Amino acid sequence: MSREGRKSGRSVTPEEADLWDRLTRSIEPTRAKPRVGRQSTAEQPASRGTAPPPKPEPPKVLRTKPAPPPPARKPAPLADFDRRAARQVASGKVSIDAHIDLHGLRLREARGDLRAFLVAAQARGARTVLVITGKGEVSSERDNLASALGTPQRGVLRRAVPQWLEEPDLRSVILGFTTAGTRHGGDGALYVQLRKGRRQA
């Protein structure tokens, strides 16, 4: 006989029914427990009436762009030396406040001495100075030979000094310059007008 036949064909005896009845009377019904969801109890709201606390936001990193550098100051342009003023200096009506003679100096030495002289003259309140370069030799062959031998170059200062005077680092000192008159050296010298220096307290 099959299992299904045995299960369906057997009936419950009165003794078994009485035993089952007494057993079920002695058992107390239990309360159903609430089901726990996937979220943890810490994430659930404390009560239905209150909303869950907001999640803290991560701190914002403020990226500031570096401040752009201040615009570079353009050096003041050189002014043309007034012809009338140049004639007055050449004739002796306007005195020369100071002078420097660069004869026989090498380029590096002459450049340093010239700058120091001009700054010091401006600090003393000088307005017109004389820079003597010497006429030198015009021939470039002489200049190349002198350079190869390591001797002071002739004629180079006469061409280099005007270039130095036009450089930006001297614009705060120099107002303008021009070729000197004959009595002060002509093509071998320069009249230089200086800007007013700041008065020191």
The parts where pLDDT drops under 50 for at least 5 residues are: 1-6, 138-142
Computed structural class: alpha+beta
What is the count of helical runs?
6
- Give a quick account of the main beta sheet: strands, pairing sense, barrel closure: 4 strands, mixed
Strand order of the largest sheet: 1-2-4-3
**What is the strand content?**
5-15%
Question: Given the C-alpha coordinates, what overall shape results?
Answer: rod-shaped
Between the first and last Cα atoms, what is the distance in angstroms?
A: 129 Å
Mean pLDDT: 76
Compressed to H and E, one letter per element, the order equals HHHEHEHHEE
Residue share in helix: 25-40%
Q: Which fold does the CATH topology of one domain refer to?
A: Ribosomal Protein S8, Chain: A, domain 1
Give me the Rg, rounded. Answer: 52 Å
Q: Based on DSSP secondary structure assignment, what is the total number of beta strands?
A: 4
Based on the structure given, which CATH architecture of one domain is correct? 2-Layer Sandwich
**What's the CATH class of one domain, please?**
Alpha Beta
